[in-house]
Amino acid sequence: MNAPREAFGHALLQALNAQADEFIAVRRDIHRHPEMGYKEYRTSDLVAEQLERFGYAVTRGLGGTGVVGQLRRGNGSKTLGLRADMDALPIEEATGLPYASCNAGIMHACGHDGHTAMLLAAAKHIAAEVQFSGTLNLIFQPAEEGLGGAKKMMEDGLFSRFPCDAVFAMHNMPGHPQGHLVLRDGPMMASSDNVTITLDGQGGHGAMPHQAVDPVVAGAAIVLGLQSIVSRNVDPQEMAVITVGAFNAGVANNVIPQTATLRLSVRALNREVRELLEQRITELVHAQAQSYGVHARIDYRRGYPVLVNRPQETDFAREVAQALVGPDKVTLQGKALTGSEDFAFFLEEVPGCYLLIGNGDAASGGHGACMVHNPGYDFNDDNVAIGSAYWSLLVERFLKD
Ligand SMILES: [Zn+2]
Ligand SMILES: [Zn+2]
User: Fold this and answer.
1) Nearest ligand, CA of residue 343?
2) Average pLDDT for residues 304-308, to the nearest whole number?
3) Which of 24, 136, 237, 291 is the most exposed place for a label (fewest CB within 10 A)?
4) Residue 199, phi then psi, degrees to nearest 5
5) Rounded Cα–Cα distance for residues 215 and 223 (Å)
6) Does residue 93 carry a pLDDT above 90?
7) DSSP β-bridge partners for residue 173
8) Residue 362: its pLDDT value, please?
9) pLDDT tens for residues 334-356?
10) What's the gap in Å between 115 CA and the centre of ligand 1?
11) Which residues pair with 194 in a beta bridge?
């Protein structure tokens, strides 16, 4: 064995590689039986059963189907939380894999099956082999996909019942080389808000527009007006997205409808920009509506907040990542993403770091390169060993004797 490989945590990778088959089988079993958010009954049973077998104290029912496995060692006072998500998506799987979903219309198309398996693999290794002093909380959350399972667990007292000095999470990402680790301090994932605008006009005959108040024309002006917010109000150095994903009005050529509805997705990577977007959208919609004589109702729903990695915990995670796979396979400051993630709620209360693990790219033969939320996507099983080794080394270092 040569020295540099040892120095890059090779022994730990070997140990977790040796038990990887067991957890690849677990991953494929979960993949075959995907469950939607808050309905992860079978998955959470499986998680709880495994954690108990490994010697963890298991608590169930946080956020409905959430599971926490706790392991205490020594008399250290430090506490650590590691999080995996368990839910699937409403997608009909088209991979043709032997372990493809047997639940019609539901699919693990975001790799949460892999996240759960990686954390379980780490749980087994840590319980059997890792020396530490303190409290380890393994958090398996429900309903990451749009339903805010992380927040639900917090409302059920997650951090008061299981205090954590820091929390960490990992998400696979197609388009990055398999097993590469991508970190970033500061904002990493966008906030995501949903806005529904209803324009009330006055319907009428298409031949007599002067006797009606047309919400279609007003809506069209609003769609165009909204484009000026990102280009004219937001600092050019900041990121913001306003997408009008739906514009519904009318049913016939010769009828001016009574109402029109717009549905928006609004994203930002900065809390102040998020506030600005809400303020400007509200002002602009009401002003435009008034100028066309229609009445606007705005239903502004705040979704996931901006995910912000803290510098100290990110530096710590960078060191763990580099020690494990070597600096060549670690991106120290990757790009922020316009997607959103409900781990952001955890990070609003507890410092921590969320990182990406490459699922594979086109250069590596295309395996793992298919994007998440696509019916052809599959989690890359080669990451089970690397992901669980990362968790194990992180625990060993964070809860050092
Ligand atoms: Zn997803
Ligand atoms: Zn996901």
Assistant:
1) 2
2) 97
3) 237
4) -105, 120
5) 12
6) yes
7) 358
8) 86
9) 999 999 999 999 999 999 999 99
10) 12
11) 265, 301
Counting ligands in written order, the one closest to the CA of 83 is: 2
Phi, psi of 111 (to 5 degrees): 80, 15
Phi, psi of 331 (to 5 degrees): -95, 115
- Is residue 238 flagged as an active site residue? no
CB 114 within 8 A of CB 378: no
Span from the CA of 362 to the centroid of ligand 1 (angstroms):
20
Q: Determine the distance separating the centroid of ligand 2 and the alpha carbon of 297, expressed in angstroms.
A: 32
Which parts of 127-190 are beta strand (E)? 134-141, 166-174, 181-182, 186-189
Please tell me the number of the ligand nearest to residue 373's CA: 1
Q: Known catalytic residue: 342?
A: no
Rounded CA separation 183/332 (Å): 5
Q: What separation in Å is there between the alpha carbon of 341 and the centre of ligand 1?
A: 8
Q: How far apart are CA 52 and CA 43, in angstroms?
A: 14
Output the CA 110–ligand 1 centroid distance in Å. Answer: 5
Residues 35, 87, 93, 313: which is the catalytic one?
Answer: 87
Please tell me the distance from the alpha carbon of residue 148 to that of residue 163, in angstroms, as a whole number. 20
Confidence bin at 7 (pLDDT 50/70/90): low
Q: Among the options 40, 93, 144, 381, which is catalytic?
A: 144
Distance CA 124, CA 59 (A): 17
Cα distance between residue 323 and residue 12, in whole Å: 10
* Ligand closest in space to the Cα of 91: 1
Overall pTM > 0.90? yes
Summarised one tens digit per residue, pLDDT across range 217-233 is: 999 999 999 999 999 99
In sequence order, what are the residues at sequence separation of 6 or more whose Cβ sits closer than 8 angstroms to the Cβ of residue 393? 9, 12, 320, 323, 324
Question: How many A from CA of 170 to the centre of ligand 1?
Answer: 12
